[in-house]
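Sequence in, structure out. Go.
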Amino acid sequence: MIQLTDQLGRNVALEQPARRIVSLVPSQTELLSDLGLDSRIVGVTKFCLHPPHLLKQKTIVGGTKKLRHAAIQSLQPDLIIANKEENVQSDIEQLAQHYPVYVSNVFDLPSATQMMEDIGLLTDTTTHAAAIIEDIKEAKENFPTLPTDSVLYLIWKDPWMAAGNDTFIHTMLQEAGYTNVIEEARYPVLTPQRIMELDPDVVLLSSEPYPFAEKHIEEITMLLPGCRVRTADGTMFSWYGSRLRQAWNYFQLLRKND
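Output:
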């Protein structure tokens, strides 16, 4: 018997290490694959883009917020992996009536580490999970000290929305040597006037969830002449699984353009 408390304080109990896993979280799907668990993944969402072969080989159970419950039922999972922010509470509650559901709630590096340890325990891959965590720690420790720039990290357009100060993105901005100009929580809506008043040194346009393009760089540049505006790989700032091993190298490349 495997028992633990997930990151919402819910009890998760398995008779044996999970063998039929449905992942509803793209970054945690990638983690499962990096733990060597491809053969035990039976279902993923349409947004689970990494590694790309899983979308061809596994059952697609809908989007992160629009699940196909009948598809999940047909897979008879012995573990479903979800996330507080990325999935809908009512879906999680419904699924939990029938299957063990582990719900992550990652907002900083310690909670990311805890999630990876938990997944390792539930899948009997604790040694591999520990190795991934060690790689992340090493990448973080090898990151050089860089000059601090203020940054506005935008995730959406129409309306403009930014990453707030209680998000995992905020943590990773700090890791990259930036100071987030947003003091509000979650993802506040910004007017063009507010963007001008914030007056950051740098604006980063995330590659996800909104498909920012060159025209959006031009639009922000018109609001903030002289500000350094560029697109950024959103997975490096918001994915909290094994992709973290690549994050600090990416930050070094990004900051070279500052």
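Check: The chain has a mean pLDDT of 97. The longest strand covers residues 149-156.
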